[in-house]
Amino acid sequence: MSDPGCQPAAASAPPAPTADQPLLSARAVTKSFGTTQALRGVDVRVMAGEVLAVMGPSGSGKSTLLHCLAGIVRPDHGEVWFDGRRTDLLSETCRSELRRDRFGFVFQFGQLVPELRAIENVMLPLLLAGWRRAAARAQAADLLARLELDGLEHRRPGELSGGQAQRVAVARALVSGPSVVFADEPTGSLDTLAGERVMDLLTDCARERDASIVIVTHEARVAAYADREVVVRDGRIAALVAP
User: Fold this and answer.
1) I need a surface site. Which of 70, 72, 86, 115 has the fewest CB within 10 A?
2) pTM for this model (two decimals)
């Protein structure tokens, strides 16, 4: 059950997303870890249905930016907005609900639960959201088939190839119909062919569902799937790459 305190406040909220308004945005965001400044006043906008690539070298702050946008960490200063709601002011409980209900995540190494079968890993977000088991299983099976994993539903992660396991992670990210999918180096542990197939299926399935994607990567071939790119260096947006 949702915490009633997680409802968006009307005061000072920006307009709901339109063709000209972002679905997700960061405004003058800073974040430090000890004496290390990871972000130094970052502004970024993600439109509804857009695929945005965040590029930059290791240690540039790009993953920290993703974590702030996704509500995983709270920025020290600045604002983060999603769908008319300022998320950096929400409690941890409310941000957890937001991540569960509106966001999907794909990480470099998948982070699947090793004891669960593929279909059970994909069902997990739905079960946590209160779905009945039969409905969750049907939804998960349909998505696994769409991601070319039919016949592998009952294998555990250790019984799958790297590309297959990452496609299970993509299915888990998409199964609840998120508004935004955050993908942090989603092909970093895969060979070129497996990585391209994961990106093909991730972007195709997300676009079918009108979901936005924020991809953190240092690989130009992955960024090529995006509608737009931003480059982060030393905690700042160093460049905007037009479509």
Assistant:
1) 115
2) 0.90
